[in-house]
Design a protein that fits this description.
Largest sheet: 3 strands, mixed
Radius of gyration: 22 Å
Helix content: 55-70%
Number of strands: 8
Mean pLDDT: 86
Order of helices and strands: HHHEHHEEEEEHEEHHHHHHHHHH
Number of helices: 16
Strand order of the largest sheet: 1-2-8
Low-confidence stretches: 1-20, 356-366
Distance between the termini: 73 Å
Shape: globular
Oligomer: single chain
Strand content: 5-15%
Structural class: mainly alpha
Amino acid sequence: MGLLIAAVVLLVGYSTAYVASEEVRYLSRAGLEETRILSGRMPITRLARDSTAPDSLRAMAKLVVEVRGYAAGLGLQAKETYTSYSDVGRDTLLLVLTASPRNCLCPVTWRYPIAGRVPYKGYFDPEEGKRAAAKYSAKGFDVNLRPSGAFSTLGWFNDPLLSTALTRDSVELAALVFHEIAHNTIWVKGATDFNESFAQWVGYRAAEQFFMTHGDTLLAFRAADRWHDEQLLGDYYGLLLAKLDSLYALKLPPAQNDSGRVAVARWSADTLAGPLGQSLRTIRVSRFTERPINNAALLGVRLYRTELPLFDAWDAAFRGDLTRALYTLGALLEDAEGSEAFVRMQAMVKTIRPIVTTPAPPAVLP
């Protein structure tokens, strides 16, 4: 009830600005959606025990409860994230817009309180999202408008598990829960690529340990394979974006630039059809081979796959002890902003690797 009252006060206070400002209208809609989601939630523990709910839904709720407990044991700040469940009543929660010029890997960014500047914008109103995408497209930008089934308020609200985020893939559901809780634990302002890549690492590595601890080696190996594929795709996208950077540095006329993009797309398809694509363990290459170059889409997927080998090296430096790795990383990045996160991490991993991973000398027998 308090949230509903707060929403009414907010709307009354902004009534004049709402008419005049597109941004205030956007924030007001987001506030209403958050209020509706929160007011319709139910404890996920109750859902896990609800004999009237479908078996598959109860099983997923039970898995979330167990994953939350394991996350807290790792030292992640689970807070109130996913202690409740909310059915949003539709298939898609929101649409996420990314945009970039066709001749530059330069994301359009938006600034928000707490999160800082981020290279995407979510729309609860699909038509509003389509209008925004059309506006950038008319200016000659590459645009990408994709559905999203979950979001995080970074622990500021009791983020419920949403019906749009549910999946019967136990590995992906567990990884999602760890991913969103990871955002509560470490969030570097103005460093979206770091934040999302960090959460990808935590998501799959923690899922692997969770399933192994629970005696399900099949799902543990699948989580490890997904993390393997994430790193491989990170390498692929790194090469692809480097080729596009080289093309765009030539400052070609639009027609020649477009021809160059077609050539890079052919290279991309050939690369995925070769050894790199064949090394993927859980992802079908056919999903990627026919896609034209779209800077906005590429920047979006790259956000989740930046410097992944660095996270793997950090993991190895602590011998797979996620609790120590997370605690040390949190202390290291306490006041970091933007690109400082990766710089500090790179510098420290070189220092701690010999200390943590050097094996102890053999015992001297009498």
